[in-house]
Write a structure and sequence with these properties.
Elements (H helix, E strand, L loop, with lengths): L1 H12 L4 H21 L2 E3 L10 E5 L7 H14 L4 E4 L7 H9 L2 E3 L2 H9 L3 E4 L4 H4 L15 H9 L3 E7 L1 H4 L2 E5 L2 H5 L3 E4 L10 E4 L15 H25 L6
Parallel strand pairs: 1-9, 2-5, 2-6, 3-4, 3-5
Antiparallel strand pairs: 6-9, 7-8
Length: 254
């Protein structure tokens, strides 16, 4: 702990933020998990621009949100860009949890937050399926849920390119048996029923696809029919890419 806080002090003097600290210190611990346990293979990182605003979207699964952490780590490791992660509101329900979430670059899932991040020419990571993808039962693995349209609206408002990413392996790392959908009416979120807390040693592959560049047309961001069409087309493209990767995957653990 002394070395950790010593490093924090040195970084503070150097003008680095707490988010920089989280991404430079914590991944050293996670790297051991990635390389030895999950054996993550990452391809296509070249598709992420080295500067300027960019929206990275991905399929979502494994109720613990481990895929968000892994994606953020890979983006930072290869590009040295600190992605801001649009996160579920459960990360901000209590101050002690919220502080840690913010140190990992997480921000509450609102359109205003996404717009502010992109105006600062930052990398934004979000999951269009939301909790419907994150908390879906494992029997529906790799079937993309309906996309929310916010990422398309953000791209139209700012002109930021959209880089789709697909994660293969996370669906089986944390198994969700079922979910309590009625809980959303009571506490505001779907409650998953997990099988395991300790992640299973499933081999992961993260693939970043070619950027989708939409012309900056702020007036079209409020055209529901147009935005819905674009969102659906991108979801279909990602679903095809997921099927292709699953077809070429030989085993879960080797």
């Amino acid at each position: 702990m002394r070395s950790f806080f010593g490093l924090r002090g040195a970084m503070k003097k150097a003008g680095k933020t707490r988010e920089d600290l989280a991404y430079e210190v914590l991944p050293k611990f996670l790297l051991e998990i990635i390389n030895r346990y999950l054996r993550v293979k990452t391809v296509g990182v070249r598709h992420i621009p080295k500067r300027g605003p960019v929206i990275v979207i991905s399929n979502h699964s494994g109720y613990m949100g481990f895929d968000a952490l892994m994606l953020g780590h890979q983006i930072y490791s290869y590009t040295k860009r600190i992605p801001r992660i649009i996160a579920h509101k459960m990360w901000f329900v209590r101050p002690e949890i919220s502080v840690r979430a913010k140190r990992m670059g997480m921000v509450p899932a609102t359109f205003a937050n996404g717009l502010e991040i992109l105006k600062d020419s930052t990398c934004l990571l979000l999951f269009p399926e939301g909790e419907e993808g994150n908390f879906k039962p494992t029997r529906y693995r790799y079937r993309l849920r309906r996309f929310r349209r916010g990422f398309v609206r953000l791209a139209l408002k700012t002109g930021a390119p959209i880089v789709p990413a697909i994660v293969i392996g996370a669906e089986e790392t944390h198994i969700t048996l079922s979910q309590l959908r009625w809980a959303k009416e009571v506490i505001g979120i779907i409650v998953p029923i997990p099988l395991n807390v300790i992640p299973l040693p499933v081999k992961w592959k993260i693939k970043f696809l070619k950027p989708i560049r939409l012309k900056a047309e702020p007036e079209k961001a409020d055209d529901i029919q147009y935005v819905t069409h674009l969102s659906r087309e991108i979801r279909i493209q990602m679903q095809k890419a997921i099927h292709a990767e699953l077809k070429s995957r030989k085993t879960l653990f080797l």
